[in-house]
Amino acid sequence: MTNTLKKITCAGLTSLAILSMAGCAHGPSRSQIGTGAGAVVGGVAGSALFGSTLGTVGGAAAGALIGNELSKDGRGRRR
């Protein structure tokens, strides 16, 4: 890829992300905050423990899952 094409692709993807996030008319739910926080903490922990991209991504995925589950209302109860 040429440098110009990379810049255009990056700008297009950034614009797409901003527009898709703009569709959220309300603040994040408790579950979404827990998922995001868990992903950040898990990603940092995975990077520190394994020192690789795979460790970071795996840690972020595991952290997101755990954060989502812990932040749900009515933990331990079936709905």
What's the short story on this structure?
This protein has 79 residues and is an all-alpha fold. The chain is built from 3 helices and no strands. Helix 2 packs antiparallel against helix 3.
What does it look like?
The protein has 79 residues and is mostly helical. Helices cover 76% and strands 0% of the residues. It has a domain at 29-72. It contains 3 helices and no strands. The relative contact order is 0.13.
What labels would you give this structure?
79 residues; mainly alpha; flat
Secondary-structure blueprint:
Layout: H1 3-22, H2 30-50, H3 53-71
Secondary-structure class: mainly alpha
Tell me the quaternary state.
single chain
Shape: flat
**SSE series:** HHH
* DSSP summary, beta strand count: 0
Largest sheet: none
How many helical stretches?
Answer: 3
Helix content: over 70%
- Using only C-alpha atoms, the radius of gyration works out to 17 Å
What does the average pLDDT come to?
80
| Poorly predicted regions | none
| Span between termini | 50 Å
Instruction: Please state roughly what percent of the residues sit in beta strands, choosing from under 5%, 5-15%, 15-25%, 25-35%, 35-45% or over 45%.
Output: under 5%
